[in-house]
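Researcher: Last one for today. Full complex below.
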Amino acid sequence: MSSTLTPVRSKRSALTKGQLPAFAPYVVLALALIVGAAILALVGFNAFGWGIVSAILFAAGLVGWSAVVEGSRKAKDKLATCLVVGSFLIALLPLISVIWTVLVNGVPGLIAPGFLTSSMNGVTGVYDNRAVEDGAPVVGGIYHALLGTIQITLVATVISVPVGLLTAIYLVEYGNDGRLARAITFFVDVMTGIPSIVAGLFAAAFFFAVVGPGTKTGAVAAVALSVLMIPVVVRSSEEMLKIVPNELREAAYALGVRKWRTILKVVIPTAISGIASGVTLAIARVIGETAPILVTAGFATSINNNVFGGWIASLPTFIYTQILNPTSPANPDPSSQRAWGAALVLIILVMVLNLGARLIARIFAPKSGR
Amino acid sequence: MTATPLSSSQGAGRAGDKIFSGAALAAGCLILAVLFGVALFLVVQAIPALTAPAAEIQGGEGFFAYIWPIVIGTLIAAVIALVIATPVAIGVALFISHFAPRGLASGLGYIVDLLAAIPSVVYGAWGAAFLAKEISPAYNWLAENMGWLPIFQGPASATGKTILTAGIVLSVMVLPIITSLSREIFLQTPKLHEEAALALGATRWEMIKMSVLPFARPGIISAVMLGLGRALGETMAVALVLSSGALTASLITSGNQTIAAEIALNFPEASGLKVSTLIAAGLVLFVITLGVNMFARWIITRHKEFSGAN
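Model: Here's the assembly. Have a good evening.
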């Protein structure tokens, strides 16, 4: 190695003396990969282990070399850089692994005929046993769950958006940072931290007390989801209303426009893109919630179009029940295939909502002046 | 805007103003009422369980004997999650705020946010189907080589469905929360402090150690507390991953249970006093997370008042 380094050293000025050459990380990386492969070849090769061993070798090699050439301060800096970059790569591992697992397991379920267009009504263990033993196609689908999820989320949105938006308007336009406004801000922040299952229990306890014990309908689930959704809507709308320039409000007041018309006609239209993207993100957050629906809407295997009566299915609870209580306990494979298919659909839904929110915000964003 | 006479528009306008500001105020108060209602209804529905004779509660030894082990289990799972997630999250936040190239930073931040977008039930399914299987050899190794530690006492679970696996899944779920909050705080570090440190010849790491981390310490603490709040209340990851049982010290055998998972697993089929017991358990969880969250928010607000220096 020293033979390759010598000509580079000689070309260096006094300024760059005592520094690692620019190509040092690449050399160390190549060596780490080779040595890592060699070590793994001795104990049995797998890609995951190779990555880990190479990363450790790379960090050790680079830091060691730096300590020799550059001194301990630079070496510590290199070590910190390696750790920080390493932690980012570690954080990517579960993301990649989750998405990969869902894709591999979910695609067979998703492309099964009738998966998106049929419910689980009448699908019993007999069909699943036949699917495993005789190779018959896996029947049953998620139509009822998809429908239920859309209904529950829609009702939750209808409850949350007016309440959340009006609260944000109060905080920004009327609150004047008074005691009540500060109390609301504080408790909205606290509400963001309510465990989702407690929100579900609240809705259940509320309806048990008001309507009657054992009330489980889509509306109860929607109330539970609103408890989770309102703080998200308040926070994002508040941020958006705050960045509306005061000049716009003052111009409207100067023209003699009433405050409420100013808010409706000037402030909200200016902030509408941000509000819309905040609402979309809030929907994306609650659409995947399982625990509150589990304790408020029960499980249904058939289509229920009435949010106010009877048990109703949803995608998350469908996944949960298909995994924990397979339709045919003897042959859980068809159930798990349906569960993964539903998980894939749910992830696609959430990702589309997230991307949609980013897109709305980016396309219609007002100029922030930065 | 319209050419109506002043007097009539004033009357309508004043009423409109009143209605609108009243509606906004009512919405704000509704939120306070909801939070109060959460506490109230949970208490009302929980009272039967708290006052019932000890023998009628599940386990037959009263509510506190029932709730005690699962409170400890909840804390164990949350602590595992935080111990794993905190250093990684701070590293990721530093990477996005101070190490990654400027152009990439927001895109990378979005990738981490995707972790938060994945529904919890999918994490649970992933933990149960993939992680538990892959990690069980490691548990066997731990049981053989570190078994003298009470927390790694064998025999290891053959399925890998243990509280440690649940804690790892939880750590993945709280990671984006801690990351995004710490990132915000790191970006708020006064630029002059950073540049002064660099101008004195500090390396990047020394600059971070001298200017960024001291500035961000309260923010990091509150981010970790908020992550703790999430880890305490997370249900599905534990309900699907953990094969629950009595309280045990070993993290790599099946056993232990958390409040949230206990409720999710038993509530759908519960009736009568059992419902009330589970709601009381939910009340305990609510009080714990409320305390943790209020503490975290209090740190943030206190910090806001002092960070006016920039």
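Confidence is low (pLDDT under 50) at residues 1-5 of chain A. The radius of gyration of chain A is 29 Å.
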